[in-house]
Design goal:
- By secondary structure, the chain is α/β, with parallel strands linked by helices.
- The chain has a single domain, classed as 3-Layer(aba) Sandwich (Rossmann fold), CATH 3.40.50.
- It contains eleven helices and eleven strands.
- A hairpin with a 7-residue loop joins strand 1 and strand 2.
- Helix 3 crosses helix 4 and helix 9 packs across helix 10.
- The protein is globular.
């Protein structure tokens, strides 16, 4: 695919995503410029937290567990951690990890304000570089949510400062970081465990391509549950969104996951996620 000779700025951004989405880009661009429409999510009838509806679906794609451990690798600001907490059993716990000190402070505030004490007591907030965690432990967690740092085009396109310095090189840089985190997540995951890889990026280079790299490295050790299979674990149930629930939205199937784009999802998204199982070959 041909790219613009522009190397940075608004014109380069426009050319890049117009080439990526073709005739769809005009409508998608307009939808990205509109205000987001977050929905309310509450845990045990507590104070509602407002987040993107597609983000709820991504977190709910992880099959819940009655006991064991979750890792939320890049947890701030905390909305997806709340979704995980709402589904975990009484003998389960969550490690909510966030590298940034400022974002970690926000995470602590969100958990404190929106969770009852008995659930909050089973959540540990940590500040590691998640990509380095396999140095200390492997095959440890039953469930992992990796909401990876990404291009976040919806924020870029609405901020003149960020748009002015945008460059395609940022996508490549972020894809490298995303791969480091995803490969670490797979090492941290127990056999028979499930992992959700998610971003709010538009480009496949940050989405399916990162998952494809995992499949190439681990082969039959990694199994993808894509499309409707990933939604079977609760993501398509509007009753779990909260008392202010809205009609369900339907994502688009990609090669290795699902994506929700605001031009077709009532303003929700962008959000991509892939549900990955670590196959236990010893049981086969």
């Amino acid at each position: 695919m041909k790219r613009s000779k522009q190397v940075s700025g608004a014109a380069a951004f426009e050319a890049y995503y117009n080439a990526l989405f073709g005739n769809r880009w005009t409508a998608l661009r307009e939808a990205l410029l509109q205000e987001t429409q977050p929905v309310a999510f509450s845990v045990c009838g507590g104070k509602p937290y407002y987040l993107d509806q597609a983000s709820i679906y991504a977190a709910q794609a992880l099959p819940p567990i009655d006991e064991g451990s979750y890792l939320d690798m890049c947890a701030a600001p905390g909305g997806k951690t709340l979704v995980l907490a709402s589904g975990m059993g009484q003998e389960a716990q969550i490690q909510a990890n966030e590298l940034s000190r400022a974002r970690r402070a926000r995470l602590l505030t969100v958990l404190d304000e929106h969770l009852p004490p008995d659930i909050s007591a089973r959540i540990e907030v940590t500040g590691y570089d998640a990509a380095t965690l396999p140095r200390y432990r492997q095959a440890y967690y039953d469930r992992i949510l990796l909401d990876a740092p990404c291009s976040s085009e919806r924020h870029v396109i609405t901020d003149a400062k960020y748009l002015a310095c945008w460059t395609p090189a940022r996508i490549k840089m972020l894809a490298q970081r995303q791969w480091a985190l995803l490969s670490a997540a797979f090492l941290l995951l127990k056999p028979d465990g499930f992992l959700v890889y998610a971003t709010c990026a538009l480009a496949d280079e940050e989405n399916d391509s990162v998952v494809q790299k995992l499949l190439k490295k681990y082969g039959t050790e990694a199994a993808i549950h894509s499309g409707t299979a990933a939604m079977e674990f609760g993501a398509a149930n509007p009753e779990t969104i909260g008392k202010n629930s809205t009609p369900p939205i339907l994502g688009e199937k990609t090669l290795f996951g699902s994506r929700f784009l605001p031009d077709t999802c009532g303003g929700a998204g962008p959000l991509y996620f892939s549900l990955i199982e670590k196959v236990n070959h010893e049981k086969l």
